[in-house]
Amino acid sequence: MACIDLPAQARQIQGSHFRVVVTSEPTPIPLNAPFALEIRLCDARMAELSRLAAVDAWMPAHRHGMNYKTTLTKRDWGHYRAEGLLLHMPGEWEFVFDFAGPDKPERLTFRIDAQ
Amino acid sequence: MKALVAAAGLLVSSAAGAVDFDATQTRRILGHGAWPPAQMQTQTADRTNRYSGNVDAIRLGAMLFGEPRLSGNGALSCQTCHRPEHGWSEPKARSEGLQRQDRNAPGLLNVRLQRWFGWDGANDSLWAAGIRPIVKDTEMGGSAAATAKLLREDAPLACLARRVEPAYAAMDDEAALVLAAKALAAFQETLSSPRTAFDEFRDALAANDRAGMARYPEAAQRGLALFTGRGQCGACHTGANFSNGEFHDTGLVFFLNDPDRKPGTPRRVDPGRHDGIAQLKAAANPFNLLGRYNDDPGGVASIPVRHVVQQHRNWGEFKVPSLRSLPATAPYMHDGSKATLRDVILHYSELDEDRLHSDGEAILKPLKLSEAEIADLQAFLESLSAPDDTAARYESLRREAAQCR
């Protein structure tokens, strides 16, 4: 799947065989308010389009995560929506995207400074 | 917000007077305003409460707030523990309803800004939070039936209830209880704290008004520098209301100070947020925002309850209180165990790290403050308070409401 016309503020993470493109609703990601993520798997092979299993976020320096569990829904091939995220403290948060697979799982991450 | 962030870059070391704030501190200070926040200026309605902002509901709520007939023994009202002259809290460490409670009555100023209600967040709306004390057998010991009867039979209350909801007399008891609770919430939404010396300083900082900044006492400026710097207090006490509205374990003693405990019985602990989530999400709870009484089903307000999950670290966590209008609400902490603001500051200065969860907040460290720093932090906290007129407005509302026939 190729991804075109991606929003300028989209965050891109390079995986082993595909890119993950993430946009938030609202943008930018708010502090201490619920938000959702739209997640697209780009340049992925067909077999990889259904592999996203979980989305989470945590604060490495604080050694804890969110107080909320994200729900992940598949909207289309290679297109997911994660809802129920809420970053309740300012500081560095790491978003974690876990991909399941028959051979080996893959974890992709990116960090933001939430203020 | 963009303008403020842009301003932050220009305001490094700009505080006229005792303290220079760096760019990070400046950004953090600006984040504690403006006050009042837009949500309060525009009187944005709580969409989950169809009576939010309704003038007659506010009057009905004011009447009910001081109404002892809501209680089982006819002697207790919301006002018994939430006293207007004490920041809508009370001077007792732990409240006494029909039995002694395990917690201190939280103040109610600016309560509408919260996401979760009660020290354990067992409720996700202000109106649901009003139901719990009315019907709980150890608090007011009232009932839905008695509340419905009171609304039907007391002339001023019936008059107001009819104005709020013309068909209220046909409601079943539970729906009438929810009507009463939503009116109570509509009233409590009007309880807001005024602008303070800190707010004047913060706005002067945003405007780069050096003369305005200089009017803020130097001790408060030094305390603010600690608060936004080494103290890292703003990690939890965020935003204009100085609270992220969430829950943390801050290393208080787990065991309850329990003078009623019988010899030989085990000491009790307060599970805090752990139990709050269990109560919130209990299948038998019809009053959370997933239930039929939410007037905005599927709305934004119900996102947190749909996604909150109980975690091990929630044990012993309690809600981060606002820091506005603190002096009137002593004693402090969920168990009222700290008599003064100085005691609270000393707690964080001498924090017992061994007491904290291994999977809890990793940035909590003893601040090891000097006497001068303790005094400065106290001066800053006191600068977040100013006299308010909510007690007088409450009495005025009750007088107006009593005329309804």
Description of the structure:
The complex is a heterodimer of chains A (115) and B (405). By secondary structure, chain A is an all-beta fold. Chain A has a single domain, classed as Immunoglobulin-like (Sandwich). Chain A has no helices and nine strands. Chain A has strands at 11-14, 19-25, 35-42, 52-59, 64-65, 71-76, 79-85, 91-99, 106-114. Chain A has a five-stranded antiparallel sheet with strand order 1-2-3-7-6, with no helix packed on it. A four-stranded antiparallel sheet of chain A has the order 5-4-8-9, with no helix packed on it. The radius of gyration of chain A is 14 Å and the shape is globular. By secondary structure, chain B is mostly helical. Chain B folds into three domains: 2-30 and 195-247 and 323-382, Orthogonal Bundle (Cytochrome Bc1 Complex, Chain D, domain 2); 55-192 and 389-402, Cytochrome c-like domain (Cytochrome Bc1 Complex, Chain D, domain 2); 273-314, no CATH class. In chain B, 38% of the residues lie in helices and 1% in strands. Chain B has 17 helices and two strands. Chain B has helices spanning 2-10, 23-30, 38-41, 55-65, 78-81, 126-135, 144-153, 155-164, 173-188, 197-206, 210-214, 218-228, 273-280, 303-307, 341-349, 371-382, 390-402; strands at residues 247-248, 318-319. Chain B has a two-stranded antiparallel ribbon. At the A-B interface, loops of A face α14 of B.
Tell me the name of the CATH class of chain A. Mainly Beta
Q: Which residue ranges of chain B are poorly predicted, with pLDDT under 50 across at least 5 consecutive positions? A: 1-15
Q: Could you give a short account of the major beta sheet of chain B?
A: 2 strands, antiparallel
Provide the CATH topology of chain A.
Immunoglobulin-like
Number of helices of chain B: 17
CATH level-3 fold name of the largest domain in chain B: Cytochrome Bc1 Complex, Chain D, domain 2
Number of strands of chain A: 9
Report the order of strands and helices of chain B. Answer: HHHHHHHHHHHHEHHEHHH
Uncertain regions of chain A: pLDDT < 50 for 5+ in a row? Answer: none
Terminal Cα separation of chain B, in Å? 48 Å
